[in-house]
Amino acid sequence: MSTTSINLSLEIWRQKDSKAKGDFETYKLTNISTDMSFLEMLDVLNEQLTREGSDPVAFDHDCREGICGMCGAVINGIAHGPEPETTLCQLHMRHFNEGDTLVIEPFRSRAFPIHKDLVTDRSALDRIIQAGGYVSVNTGGTPDGNSTPIPSATAELSMDAASCIGCGACVASCPNGAAMLFTGAKISQLSLLPQGQPERKERAMAMVTAMDKEGFGNCTNERECEAVCPKGISIRNIARMNREFVKASFF
Ligand code: FES
Predict the structure, then answer these.
(1) What is the domain extent for residue 38?
(2) Which atom of ligand 1 is nearest to the CA of 165?
(3) Within-domain flag for 18
(4) Do 216 and 132 share a structural domain?
(5) Are residues 155 and 227 located together in one domain of the fold?
(6) How confident is the model over 79-92, as pLDDT tens digits?
């Protein structure tokens, strides 16, 4: 297997802290293996900056396997970069070309204040979950397997919604800064299942209220969220959330 390498020019948003103004800085990187992931490429840059005595670029990451939702940046205007249904940590440098200039920015949104460089505070999403994104379970013996039958099509819909990793790319890409794809997915995954029924109405009301309180905008069907979602979450979940909210409000 042959490994090729490329040279890149990076325009990276640098911001000292949440109060600082911030601006783009240019960095040149040479001999970047196309086998590297995007985050490994940033690691190489940070080693270079550290050797020079400069401040490394702050960026979020954890699993580097596309499952935790911690990573995220906007690459040339696209949240998580150009590959569909791919998190930044799973994006590989083979998708870029020799001499490319990559503009790298944080996930910008009113509800996501910038901590430093590419690191944003996405705890607003956690507070939406805290408002109702759970089920209460009575303790006791373990229920028998298959004691609660669920049609496979329903289980699939719920699992599709549950695959949301809460990265916030949907918010960053929405012109309204809406978190409706995220909230819709979290409400849907529970409202579709029998286990989610007891708190169904309270959940829809509480999570939508929390979403509004955090300063997220409203959906105007731009579908930018769906286009960048690394897990391919469908905007049908937004329609389901709206139905759940209306039902909880009037019935
Ligand atoms: S670091 Fe966990 S999804 Fe990217």
Answers:
(1) 5-105
(2) 3
(3) yes
(4) yes
(5) yes
(6) 999 999 999 999 99
- Judge if 97 and 133 occupy the same domain: no
Whether residue 100 sits in one domain with residue 133: no
pLDDT tens profile 156-181: 999 999 999 999 999 999 999 999 99
Q: Which atom of ligand 1 is nearest to the CA of 68?
A: 2
- Same domain (yes/no): 65, 172: no
Choose among 57, 89, 98, 55: nearest CA to 169.
89
Instruction: Confirm or reject: Cβ of 70 under 6 Å from ligand 1.
Output: yes
pLDDT in tens, 195-241: 999 999 999 999 999 999 999 999 999 999 999 999 999 999 999 99
From the alpha carbon of 64, which atom of ligand 1 is closest? 1
DSSP string, 91-124: -BGGGS-TT-EEEEE---BTTB-EEETTEE--HH
Whether residue 171 sits in one domain with residue 57: no
Helix (DSSP H) and strand (DSSP E) numbers for the chain: 8, 7
Tokens of 111: 């509800």
What mean pLDDT value characterizes the chain?
96
Task: Give residue 91 CA to ligand 1 midpoint distance, Å.
Answer: 11
Query: Is the same domain home to 61 and 177?
Result: no
The CA-atom distances, in angstroms, between 81 and each of 56, 199, 202 are 21, 37, 37
Using 50, 70 and 90 to split pLDDT, how confident is the model at 111? very high
Cβ of 236 closer than 6 Å to ligand 1, yes or no, is no
For residue 67, report the distance from its CA to the centre of ligand 1, in Å. Answer: 6
Q: Is 87 in the pocket of ligand 1 (CB under 6 A)?
A: yes
Tokens 């935790």: give the residue. Answer: 68
Write the CATH number for 16: 3.10.20.30
Question: 2 pLDDT exceeds 70?
Answer: no
